[in-house]
Amino acid sequence: MTDQSRPGRKRSEQSRLAILAATLELVAEAGYGALTIEGIAARSGVGKQTIYRWWPSKADVLLDALATKADLQIPIPDEGSLRADLTRFLGRTFELGDKSPVADTLRALMAQAQIDPEFGKRFREEFLFRRRDALGRIVDRARERGELPAGVGSGTVIDVVFGTLWYRLLATREPVGRGLAGELVALLSAR
Amino acid sequence: MTDQSRPGRKRSEQSRLAILAATLELVAEAGYGALTIEGIAARSGVGKQTIYRWWPSKADVLLDALATKADLQIPIPDEGSLRADLTRFLGRTFELGDKSPVADTLRALMAQAQIDPEFGKRFREEFLFRRRDALGRIVDRARERGELPAGVGSGTVIDVVFGTLWYRLLATREPVGRGLAGELVALLSAR
Amino acid sequence: MTDQSRPGRKRSEQSRLAILAATLELVAEAGYGALTIEGIAARSGVGKQTIYRWWPSKADVLLDALATKADLQIPIPDEGSLRADLTRFLGRTFELGDKSPVADTLRALMAQAQIDPEFGKRFREEFLFRRRDALGRIVDRARERGELPAGVGSGTVIDVVFGTLWYRLLATREPVGRGLAGELVALLSAR
Amino acid sequence: MTDQSRPGRKRSEQSRLAILAATLELVAEAGYGALTIEGIAARSGVGKQTIYRWWPSKADVLLDALATKADLQIPIPDEGSLRADLTRFLGRTFELGDKSPVADTLRALMAQAQIDPEFGKRFREEFLFRRRDALGRIVDRARERGELPAGVGSGTVIDVVFGTLWYRLLATREPVGRGLAGELVALLSAR
DNA sequence: AACTAAACGAGACGGTACGTCGTGTCTTTCG
DNA sequence: CGAAAGACACGACGTACCGTCTCGTTTAGTT
C-alpha cells in the first residue's frame, strides 16, 4: 500500500533511531525549553533536512521518541469490577508517568500542544484521545454493570480521571502516588 | 520601604498600560506562539529595555495583562452548603474562563509554566495556588459540615475540581458549560 | 582505443542534449547567478548524478552548451593585409558576441573562471588561448609584412585587441559595434 | 546633513574595521570562492546581522575593505606630455595591481560584478567609472595637445588601456610589468 | 537654578536558532 | 550497468528575536 516499491534511496532507519535517541537525551539533560532541531541534528550526526523531511516540528519528534521508547499502549483490563479495572489502569499509568523523564516529556508535549495549534491537533488525536478511548471502554462496562453514580456522564468521569492526573502533573507537580487511585475509585463508585 | 522617594524619573504608567494592551492585542491576533517582546515594544511604541526592566519574561507580561484586564479575584461564597457554594464558585469561574481570549491566555500561561521553570514557579504561587486556597476554604467548610465523602482528602477534592476544568481547557477544549458544575457537585457530595 | 565497445548501457545522447538545452534556458531566464545543478537536473528531467558523471562543474556544462549551440570556431582569414584580416576577424567575433545571450554567457564564464581556479584553467586552455592562437596567426603574418608598429610585441597586440573587446563586454557593457574594428585597425597599423 | 544626530546607539567603528580586516584575511587565505558572510562574522567576532545591516552583499564588503586598505585613489598626473602622464599613471596603477592580494581581489570583484547585477552596477559606478574618469582627464589633455592619433575616439583609447590591463589580469594572468606601459604609450601616441 | 539620577524611545550590538537551498555522494529500482 | 529518483551529511544562506548595551532626551527629586 504505502510501501509500494519506489525508486530512490530508502529512509535510513539508523538515522531515525539516532534522532529519537538524541532527542530524549537532550530533553533529559537540559529540558524541553533548550531543545532545538539544530541540537538534535548535531547530537545525532544527522543533517537538519533529514529531520525536517520526516517530522513537522520538534514536538512531533519528541512525541515519536516517547512513543518509540516507552510503550505507551496501556492494556485495557477487564476484571469484572470498576474498582479492579480502574486500579489496574491507573496503576499502569502511574508506572509510566512517575518516571521523571517521561513526566517531563508529557508536560512539555501538553504545553507545546497549547502553543502550536497544528501540533495540538495531532497530539490530541494521536495521544490524548486514544487514552480517553481506552478508559472509555472501562467506564462503559462499569456503567452497564450499574457501578457508576447516576447523574454523571461517562465523558465527565473520564475527564475527572485524566483531569486529576494531568492537573497533578502540570500544576501541583506532586507525584501521582498509589493513594490517588483509591480515592478516585471511591469517588467514582456508585453509592 | 520599597517605594521610598528616590530621585530620578518615575515609572511611566502610560507605557505600562500601552505594553499590557499591546500584549493582549497581539495574543488575540496571532496567538501566544507569535508573541515576542520585540513585537510588544513595536506595537506599544516603547523601547525593549522598558519591558525588560519591569518584567522577567513575556509570559509575566501576559499574566500581568490578564490580571489587570480581567479581575481574576473570585469571591469565596458562603451559602451554607457545598452544593450552593460550589455551584456559585464554578459559575463565576466559568464566566471568566469561557471568554475565548481569557481561555486562550490561560492555556498559554499554563503551557509556558511547563517550559520555563522560573515562570512556572511564579505562575503556581501567584495564580494557581491562590485559586486552590479559595476553593480550599469552601471545601474545608463542607468537610466540617460532613458534606464530603469519607476516604477522599480535601486536597484531592480540589485537584478533581480544578483538574477537570483545566483538562477540558487544555485537552478536550470543550466549553466548560453549566452542566459540569452539577455533575461535579453530584460526584463530590457525600452519599 | 577509447571508444572500444564496452559493456553496459551507453551514454544517453538524449539526456546530454536535454541538459545542455536546459542550461541555456535557465541562464537566459534568470541569469548565471541563479543557475544550479539541481535546477538543470529538474528542468531536463535528469538525475543529478548524470550531470556530475560527465561534467566537473556547472560552468563546464555551460561552456559545453555554448560550444554546442553557437559554433565558436572562427575561421582565420588570409586576405593579404592586416586591415582586411583584422576587420573580418573582428566582424565575425562581434557577430557572435553581440547576441545578448551569448554575451551574457561569456561574461558568466569569464567570471566563474576567476572564482573557480580549476575551471579557470580549463576555460583558458580550451577557450581563451585558442582564440589567442587564431589571432596570433593573423598578427604573425602582418608582422612579416611589416604592417605592425615597431616596439610593440605581438603578444601585446593580441592583448590589446582581446582586452578591449572583453573590457567592453565586462566593464562598460557597451555593444561592441562596427566602429571599434576600424579604430583598432587604425591604432595597430604601422604608420 | 547626513549625520544628523539620531537617537539610538551609534555604529561601532571597531566592528566595522574588524569586519573589513577579517574579509581581507579570509580572501587571502582561501580565495573569494571560500568567502562567506558566516566566516567573516566568525572571524571578526561580530553578529551576522551587523554585516547585513551595513553591506548589501559580501562583494560590497570586499570592495569596501579594499578601498579602506589600499588607497585606490590614484592622483592624476599633469606633466605636459601623454608619454609622461601615461607612464606615471600606469606605473602607479601597476604598483597597486601587482600586489597579489590586491590583484586577486580585483579579479573577484570583477567576476562578482558579472554574476550579481546589483553589485555590478555599484562596482561600475563606484570603482570602474571613477578610474575611467581619471584616465579620461589625461587623454583629454593629450587630445588638446594633438598627441593622439586621429580616427581613434577618446573613449576607445581609455578602453584600450584599461582593457589591456584587465585582460592580463583576468585572462593571461601575466604580471602587468613595466614594459607594457611603454608599449601602450608607443601604440597610442600620434605618429 | 543647578545638579544628579533614573526612566524613556531608539536602535546597534553579539548571539542562537530558524527553516530553506544547494552541494556532492550514496542507494535503490527500473529498463 | 546507465539513468531516474530521491535520501543523506554538510554548509551557508538571510531572517527573526533574544537580551544587552549605548545614545540623546525627558522628568523628578535633591542640593
From TrEMBL, chains A, B, C, D:
Q: Which residue numbers delimit the HTH tetR-type domain?
A: 13-73
**Is the Transcription keyword given for this protein?**
yes
- InterPro entries, A to Z: Homeodomain-like_sf, HTH-type_TetR-like_transc_reg, HTH_TetR, Tet_transcr_reg_TetR-rel_C_sf, TetR_C
Among its keywords, does the record have Transcription regulation? yes
UniProt GO MF annotations: DNA-binding transcription factor activity; transcription cis-regulatory region binding
- Please give the DNA-binding region boundaries: 36-55
Q: What UniProt keywords are attached to this protein's entry?
A: DNA-binding, Transcription, Transcription regulation
The lineage's top-level taxon is: Bacteria
Protein name (database record)? TetR family transcriptional regulator
Query: Which organism encodes this protein?
Result: Amycolatopsis vastitatis
